[in-house]
Amino acid sequence: MEGVDHLADERNKAEFNVDDMKIIWAGSRHAFDVSNRISRFVATDPVFEKSNRALMTRKELFKNTLKKSVYAWKIIKELRLSDEEGIKLRIFMDQPGFLDLHWGMFVPAIKGQGTEEQQQKWLSLANKMQIIGCYAQTELGHGSNVQGLETTATFDPKTDQFIMHSPTQTSSKWWPGGLGKVSTHAVVYARLITNGKDHGVHGFIVQLRSLDDHSPLPGITIGDIGMKFGNGAYNSMDNGFLMFNQFRIPRDQMLMRLSKVTREGKYIASDVPRQLVYGTMVSVRQTIVSKASDALARAVCIATRYSAVRRQFGSENGGIETQVIDYKTQQNRLFPLLASAYAFRFVGEWLKWLYTDVTQRLEASDFVTLPEAHACTAGLKSMTTSATSDGIEECRKLCGGHGYLWCSGLPELFAVYVPACTYEGDNVVLQLQVARFLMKTVSQLGSGKAPAGTTAYMGRAQHLLQCRSGVQKAEDWLNPSMVLEAFESRALRMAITCAKNLSKFENQEQGFSELLADLVEAAIAHCQLIVVSKFIAKIEGEIEGKGVKKQLKNLCYIYALHLLHKHLGDFLSTNSVTPEQASLASHQLRSLYSQVRPNAVALVDAFDYTDHYLGSVLGRYDGNVYPKLFEEALKDPLNDSVVPDGYHEYIRPLIKQNFPSAKL
Ligand SMILES: CCCCC/C=C\C/C=C\C/C=C\C=C\C(=O)SCCNC(=O)CCNC(=O)[C@H](O)C(C)(C)COP(=O)(O)OP(=O)(O)OC[C@H]1O[C@@H](n2cnc3c(N)ncnc32)[C@H](O)[C@@H]1OP(=O)(O)O
Ligand SMILES: Cc1cc2nc3c(=O)[nH]c(=O)nc-3n(C[C@H](O)[C@H](O)[C@H](O)COP(=O)(O)OP(=O)(O)OC[C@H]3O[C@@H](n4cnc5c(N)ncnc54)[C@H](O)[C@@H]3O)c2cc1C
User: Fold this and answer.
1) Please, which residues bridge with residue 140 across strands?
2) Which of 22, 347, 388, 399 gets the highest tally of CB atoms within 10 A of its CB?
3) pLDDT, average across residues 342-359
4) Strand pairing partners for 259?
5) In a 3-state reduction of DSSP, which class is residue 411?
6) Residue pair 435/379 in contact by the 8 Å Cβ criterion
């Protein structure tokens, strides 16, 4: 029934103040106000309608993305929205497009790697969108291995120019978002060559298309790489290819904050670490962690509301059937994902702090925390995006058959989200970076250099290698120090086992290659420890609002104990817990599920998502699922006529067994 809240009973059961939880979820009252206002603005503007995009052709979808993007920019300008409001507008618009790459990578690359003069020149154009930029790093032949890129930028001292060239087919740029059809400029990563010497990969600002008629400049071949996974979804983005044929740019278009080429062609490397050329990726990986919590929260919101609406079995004497959310199996699959969404939110907040801190240090030429910032952004990007992709798919299954309908919102969410496991660094490749960092830290134990930050626990190696968990009863698993000790001991013991196995090889690189799978598992254990420890730090801090802290505590322990359950092999094989303690953890988990159950719908209401943003019939705020499923079905073009096109051509001849031209 229209106007009726079918989930009202669920909402009445909540034991905490949802409005207070909304502030915690958003990060602050101000952040909540901005999100709330902008999401409602987008939801009510017809230009941002998105329910029809699965049926659009690629060309229609692309044009629709241009329309929405330019309209969003007009609104940002006319209403003088702040940067924060502009970002929210793009998020709630919910359609990948060139704006993401222009603002998310092109502008940050110039800010991070351009000199002051370069910033003044290029940012004044980019900030007004008089030029549109993308981030062109990946090539057909190399994405993960950045040092393997083949595009060359050869300095020509006669003309004071760089000659950009794609020497092979595999050196074609391939994948950059916004490149295929929209961008006028790109930050291109290429091997810098001066006086015949290769100085490795550097960034260059390159104009690609005419600012008058948008045609590619002579010497440039450019286009879209074609359809990607799913309908609609990421196909709104013009991921592109690009080849240079001896294309010339002025010398001052090399991004020269980190290293320079003089008029004479002399290469001057600064004394900062060369890895700062990867700085834009580090910054985006950090934002991807918060985005993971957002994507997982969307899926969980849909699955939770629908699980409360959906009823199957359990009816006695013709009475009402059981809500599927009351099945323990449903809770065991759903509530850890709900807990993960909150966990990723808080670790994302912490990572933002860490990133701000390292940025300030870098500005003061303090590079000490750079390796840790790289390891944390890489590892947490990897861990949270993998868990979120799996989680969205699990939410689809939690919604049964209807989850497979496009209008559930889950297929498109999955299709848009899943490349996050690949872009900004393949998730396995990134965990191997964490593993290298851990092996280095372990090798320095006992050298007098105490591990700091997220590896500080390794400084207590003597204790953590010997200790036995003190858990004796199920409630002990609600003791933060007992939970932390189990995770620390598991992570440390896995890292030390890897280090010991590595030391058996004469050639360390060969050993590393042999042990890749174990190293990835050790890295994941370390990352899970970070997430658990940041969640615990959150619930131990000040939290306002009636009943809010209690709910967050429940979610925190669900997050930790479900990981313990899922990775029990690690915990048992490292003797971090005994089988009896593991079974006490399962007992405690069941009790926590019962405590979360009456609060589940309110906990997803706290995400404050509009029905427009959710884009899901199953996840509607009012729970009015069945009539709306019918409405959606009737909108399908196949239902435009009762007798379908093709009846006379195929169905009728078939059932009449009358095939005029067929030789049977
Ligand atoms: C609404 C707003 C939207 C905004 C956008 C938000 C989200 C994104 C949305 C959509 C996606 C859109 C765009 C996607 C873009 C892209 O995908 S861009 C391309 C991304 N490419 C990658 O991520 C490539 C991954 N590969 C690498 O990063 C490197 O090749 C790798 C780190 C794997 C190896 O590098 P290499 O130079 O070969 O290093 P070594 O393994 O030899 O290590 C040498 C030392 O350097 C340290 N190190 C490596 N990377 C960094 C770093 N970034 N920072 C600091 N330090 C680093 C490494 O740890 C080694 O240290 P030690 O010598 O061991 O001490
Ligand atoms: C939707 C999307 C948008 C993108 N946008 C951009 C963009 O805007 N700009 C841009 O420059 N790029 C972009 N990319 C490219 C992206 O960054 C790369 O695809 C990504 O870095 C992975 O590199 P790859 O494709 O070379 O994978 P590969 O490295 O070829 O990975 C293939 C397999 O090999 C494994 N593997 C590779 N190396 C190792 C190793 N050392 N040890 C163990 N296993 C290994 C991987 O785990 C994976 O299973 C985008 C990609 C996608 C999908």
Assistant:
1) none
2) 388
3) 98
4) 269
5) helix
6) no
Q: Which of 150, 372, 412, 424 is catalytic?
A: 424
Whole-angstrom Cα distance, residue 661 to residue 664? 9
The lowest-confidence range among 220-224, 355-359, 508-512, 656-660 is 656-660
Residue 271 has a pLDDT of 87
Count each helix (H run) and each strand (E run) in the chain, helices first: 24, 11
Q: What spacing in Å lies between the alpha carbon of 601 and ligand 1's midpoint?
A: 38
pTM above 0.95, yes or no: yes
Same fold, 1-49+276-664 and 133-275: no
In CATH terms, 133-275 corresponds, of 2.60.370.10, 2.30.40.10, 2.40.110.10, 3.30.479.30, to 2.40.110.10
- pLDDT tens for 548-587 read 999 999 999 999 999 999 999 999 999 999 999 999 999 9
| DSSP labels, 514-557 | HTHHHHHHHHHHHHHHHHHHHHHHHHHS---STTHHHHHHHHHH
Phi, psi angle pair for 247, to nearest 5°: -90, 130
Give the 3-state DSSP-derived string for 618-633, with helices as H, strands as E and coil as C.
CCCCCCCHHHHHHHHH
10 Å CB burial of residue 158 (0-12, 13-18, 19+) is exposed
Task: Kindly give the distance from the C-alpha atom of residue 425 to the centroid of ligand 2, in angstroms, as a whole number.
Answer: 6
Query: Per-domain residue ranges for the chain?
Result: 1-49+276-664, 133-275
Mutate to test the pocket of ligand 2, among 101, 138, 285, 287 (most ligand atoms within 8 A of CB): 138
Strand blocks (E) in 369-429? none
| Residue nearest ligand 2's atom 39 by CA | 429
Structure tokens at 194: 């001066």
Nearest ligand 1 atom to the CA of 419 is 11
Residue type, 645: D
What distance in angstroms lies between residue 370's CA and the mean position of ligand 1's atoms? 13
Residues 6+ apart with CB under 8 A from 434: 375, 378, 379, 382, 523, 526, 527
What are 446's two structure tokens?
A: 């006992």
- Residue 34, SS3 per DSSP: helix
pLDDT at 270: 87
**Domain over 1-49+276-664 is classified CATH 1.20.140.10:** yes
d(CA 572, CA 216) in angstroms, rounded, equals 60
